[in-house]
Design a protein that fits this description.
This protein is mainly α. The chain contains three helices and no strands.
Length: 88
Amino acid sequence: MPPYGACARRASPGRRNPPYVPPTPEQAAWRHVAGTFRAFAEWATDENVALAREGLREARGVPFHDLDAKTIAEGSAAFNTIKEWFDA
């Protein structure tokens, strides 16, 4: 008798269990973009956005605030580029 979990014969891949095909670099990049926006959209409730705005006010005098602002500005520019793809 085979050990627990072992099969007497190896199952052949079929429609229900196709062999794994890794995403292309382009597909992986798009999945990253979509996943990032999905996570942000789920987080961005009115309450969380209000908390972030208050956090922005509190962070103005804190070290590295300029780096945060620069990062957000760069992300916003990238968002506008991606949005243009859909508007085209």
